[in-house]
Amino acid sequence: MRSSANKTTQKPSGLEACGSGNELFELVDTTKRNRIWNWENRCEMNVSLTLCAVIWICSLIFALPVQAEERVQKSGVALFKQFCFDCHSGGSSEAGNDIENLFLAKPIVKNRKSWNRIKQLIEYETMPPSDYDQPSSYERKLMLEWIQDNVDQFDYSTVKHPGWEPVRRMTHLEYNNTIRDLLGVKMNLVEKFPRELVGNTGFENSANTLFLQPALMERYIAAAERATTAANIFESSDTHQFNNALQQFLRRSYRRPIGKTEFEFYLENLSKLKRQGAGDAEAIKGIMAGVLISPDFLLRVESNSDQSGKISEHELATRLSYFLWASMPDDELLKLADDGRLSEPTVLRQQVQRMLGDRKSAGFVESFVGQWLSTRLVGKEIRLDPIDNAWCTDSLMQSMRIETLMFVAAIIKENRPITDLIDADFTYVNEELAKTLYGFQSIRGNRMRRIQLKGRGRRGILGHASVLAVTSNHDETSPIKRGAYVLDRILGTPPPPPPPDVGELDEELIENDRLSLAQKLRRHAADKKCASCHNTIDPIGIALEKFGAYGRTRKWAASTATLADGYELRGAEDLREYLLTQRRSDFVRNFVVRVMEYALGRETEYFDEPAIRKIIAEANENDLKIQSIVHSVVTSYPFQYRKENPK
Asked: pLDDT for 183-194, tens place per residue?
């Protein structure tokens, strides 16, 4: 361990400031030897002794926190070195976790997410592995206190950086929507595109995964030809009108003003195509296709920030439209950007409200919700064989997905608090979904419609068939999967991966028909290596056991369990109450972080923490209304500024 990385500033204790205990006793002895017996001197001596005694005692009291802090600092680092560095130090660190190197980072909170994982592993007692020396409970406490003092309580006022916006291409959804809004062409142009990668955020719009592969470029060329063939092209015998139309097409395609030289380049290419024998319509389509495969169209490039790092008005319009519409800015946004007014607080607020009320906000709902909750997988990767399960139709799978999308869209449109995501008393169903999975017999027809829910059993997204299917294993429920899903997707506190020496449920235990699933899980969790995680994961999943793999109500299933902290969950109703009371702050923070990461197209970093805390504070002031959170994200420092990569 490099000692220079762990130096702590030695604070003078109160005892050192006013004299040591020995000096005080020497003073007392000297006073006694002088034998000053007159009353005045005796009073003086008593006052002096009392004053010194008080000072000495106070110095001890005030020195204790400093000494305790120094003890935590020194012993905390030493304990990490003792229990972690053997496996997690240097280039050969196991699992790529170089804990020794984390101590050298400046600021140390730069690797906050790594420290949070380490804290979790210490709390759950999953590290060190069971065949290594284990720290005592007191030693674990000191290690956690070190993380608390140095990472959790870091002074973020010393950090000011908005992050950066790397060059990235449009996602497939954004590309399809942009072609639709630019050319008025409604067709699936991306069905043969390579599958999107997903970044650490869980979203496809993460800049670090949106690069141009050669195979994708070939698909763009073919898609551009299809789109321009289907589009209504602009033609005019009036040169002035034609030039205006071409300039507007370029401006909308590139989402910014077009310079004179740039415009003349396209006019010259248009003339060149005509000289080569192309007719007017063919030449115009050739220019349009060229625009649709140009970097300025396919890529989102930001380079116009001023010295403060504030992005340009047109870059703000682009960030805003791809956040809330998953598509290009419309004419109103571009006009406000042209006039330099979009960033004005009142104007920006009005635009956010307008955009959330526009039907194109379905692009945000579809993209954000489908990826955050993984419900877009229903009917694709998640479905049963319809041959053996005739009820598992394409139309039912679609209805399951649409229920969740319409539900979240209503919360946004009506500006409801985000707690309604967990406990709203309404949902959307059609006859097939209502009868097949929910047991609602009075619904008729294929149209999805809003219904009020009686009772609290199926309230919120945790009662949706889409979420319940995503968190199951094929045709069987999985309390472990459901518990981990809630901890991760809903609360933002995913459990650590299982220790390397711990496997799945024992096969003999699985096949024991005399035990309920809850009893099997309790026996599995009896293993100390498993207990720390499963005592948190399993009760949450068990609370949802009344719902089958695809959300059917199962009255016979046991759904009562107790969390590690003694909180009893007696079904889904108690789980919702637990999430909105005991874990409310985790839920709110997770939602804010998820929206922010989607809006920025990158993972949040340590330097985003001041903005996250500000958004959470503003959300609480506005009763957690969802539109207020979206507006706070749009007006945040990271959304409106950029700088070079600080790493």
From this structure: 999 999 999 999
